[in-house]
Write a structure and sequence with these properties.
By secondary structure, this protein is mainly β. It has one domain. Strands 1, 2, 3, 4, 5, 6, 7, 8 and 9 form a nine-stranded antiparallel sheet that branches. The longest helix has 12 residues. It is globular, with a radius of gyration of 15 Å. The relative contact order is 0.22.
């Protein structure tokens, strides 16, 4: 799996691969959602996401952005995180869901993208049961759609290797 960096920032970053304005649902400006397609972490607050989420041609969308309070970290193996991941897999797919990571074993939040009929389902984001969610409107040009997972993405082998969610290698 490839990773990009995501952050919600006050000003549009010049060096981001994709960025779009973000507004609270009442229309109040909330900054910019920015994604960087590079190896080095661009900002202290940036978190890794599934690289396939970036779509500079992506349509505007509603998002649920879940972030832990400062200084709080949960392992992906925490039962609350596992339950939320299972709930996402059991529900009909939305446009995109990615967890936010700072390393291979800690849950640092999530980003869920919805358009059309899926927008109403953001109010019941399973990850918002762990940490508070911000429901936001993001402009066009930054987030796309991800295919629904083909397998058990909640399982891991090794601490740095997520189970292949879209492919399975040949038997060894």
């Amino acid at each position: 799996m490839s990773w990009h960096w995501l952050a919600l920032v006050d000003e549009r970053p010049e060096d981001a691969t994709g960025a779009a304005p973000v507004h609270e649902l009442d229309g109040t400006a909330a900054g910019f959602l920015a994604i960087w397609a590079r190896r080095a972490k661009p900002l202290a607050d940036a978190r890794r996401i599934d690289a396939r989420l970036l779509d500079t041609d992506g349509a505007e969308a509603q998002i649920s952005l879940v972030r832990p309070p400062p200084g709080v970290r949960l392992l992906f193996d925490d039962l609350a995180v596992q339950h939320a991941r299972r709930a996402v897999l059991a529900a009909p797919p939305l446009d995109a869901v990615t967890t936010l990571l700072s390393d291979a074993s800690h849950f640092e939040g999530s980003l869920t993208v919805a358009r059309g009929d899926g927008v109403a389902r953001l109010a019941d984001d399973p990850f918002a049961r762990i940490f508070p969610a911000r429901l936001l409107h993001v402009g066009a040009g930054v987030v796309g759609r991800l295919p629904a997972p083909a397998g058990p993405v909640i399982e891991r082998y090794g601490s740095a290797q997520p189970w292949p969610q879209d492919r399975f290698g040949a038997a060894r």
